[in-house]
Design goal:
Layout: E1 5-7, H1 11-17, E2 20-22, E3 27-29, E4 32-33, E5 44-47, E6 52-58, E7 69-76, E8 96-98, H2 108-114, E9 117-122, E10 124-130, E11 136-142, H3 154-158, E12 162-163, E13 167-168, E14 174-184, E15 190-200, H4 203-206, E16 211-213, E17 215-216, H5 219-226, H6 233-238, E18 247-250, H7 276-311
Parallel strand pairs: 4-7, 7-15, 8-15
Antiparallel strand pairs: 1-5, 1-10, 2-3, 6-7, 6-9, 9-14, 10-11, 11-18, 12-13, 14-15, 14-17, 15-16
């Protein structure tokens, strides 16, 4: 499953990070950006369902668009097309969609057959590992990186370069296959929302959780999933295969609270517990330093005291 992601960059950065090579133009092109009213994206290292995050879709969905790909913020958690009332009150868990039942689902099969395929953009996602007792240790899962780049470091994204001849030189974003819906309220309010497709985990993640997102690792996979007019949905599903290479590191329990937007949420922590003897040694050394400091302070203050006494005798 996938219940929390990190999207701490601006839309402008994600446009560059998801650029693609256009054979007709013979250069790299950035997706255009489209942000409807009420769909504001607020970068955060802790994105939860019902919040908005960047989604990539084919420009064919927008008649006025000339770009082949478009980034549009959408709400995480698909709103059923038949739902009436407040868009958050449908009561269904729709942030994930199981690939095994996608064709039999009343909600998802209709979106799939209609061509509402999208690619969810993020720095990485979080998963929790059950440990001893009731505690769960969160991990940050992300795409393998090159040249020592770190997706959890915002500066690595902001300082990265881009050119139309070579494309993006920064951290590799994590791209996940999804479905989206255009929902109309009784008052004709429009909300775009999405779900992330999940599948059985491979060995790369089964130690952590039995489910994982359908991660897209090549531009061929991305375009095959987005090209709903040229790629029939059954063929597109064949492109969703379990990824065999992901990176991860443990993170702080800060991420457990979805209201906590601290930038430290996706930063690595050490799980190494120091032994009792090591802790006792640290305490003994600390005590020795404190005693030494006290003696030194007392020795340094003694001559001043004598001097003051002689001046006033």
């Amino acid at each position: 499953m996938c219940g929390r992601t990190s999207c701490h960059c601006s839309l402008a950065v994600y446009q560059k990070a998801t650029s693609y090579f256009d054979e007709n133009l013979n250069r790299y092109v950035c997706p255009s950006s489209d942000q409807p009213p009420g769909h504001e994206f607020h970068p955060s290292a802790n994105i939860a369902p019902t919040q908005f995050s960047p989604v990539l879709l084919s420009g064919d969905h927008l008649s006025e668009e000339t770009s082949r790909r478009v980034i549009r913020p959408m709400m995480w958690g698909m709103i059923p097309p038949w739902h009436q009332g407040d868009h958050k009150s449908h009561g269904l868990s729709t942030n994930n969609c199981r690939i095994e039942s996608i064709l039999s689902s009343k909600l998802y099969s209709g979106r799939l057959k209609k061509g509402n395929r999208c690619v969810v953009i993020c720095d990485g996602f979080y998963e929790w590992q059950t440990t001893k007792g009731k505690n769960k240790q969160p991990y940050f899962i992300f795409s393998p990186q090159q040249n020592g780049l770190r997706p959890e470091i915002l500066e690595d994204w902001n300082q990265a370069g881009w050119s139309d001849s070579k494309g993006w030189f920064g951290p590799a974003p994590l791209l996940m296959a999804g479905l989206f819906n255009e929902w109309h309220s009784p008052e004709n309010e429009i909300k775009y929302s999405y779900t992330i497709i999940t599948m059985e985990s491979t060995d790369v993640l089964s130690w952590l959780h039995h489910r994982m997102p359908a991660v897209l690792t090549t531009d061929e996979q991305v375009w095959s999933w987005l090209d709903y007019e040229g790629m029939p949905f059954r063929d597109a599903l064949e492109y969703l295969t379990p990824v065999k290479n992901l990176s991860s590191h443990p993170v702080s329990n800060l991420v457990n609270n979805s209201r906590n937007k601290d930038s430290c949420c996706n930063k690595p922590i050490s799980l190494k517990k120091e032994s009792k003897s090591s802790l006792l040694m640290q305490a003994w050394l600390k005590k020795g330093k404190e005693e030494s400091f006290e003696k030194k302070s007392a020795a340094e203050s003694e001559p001043s005291a004598k001097k003051i006494k002689s001046n006033y005798s």
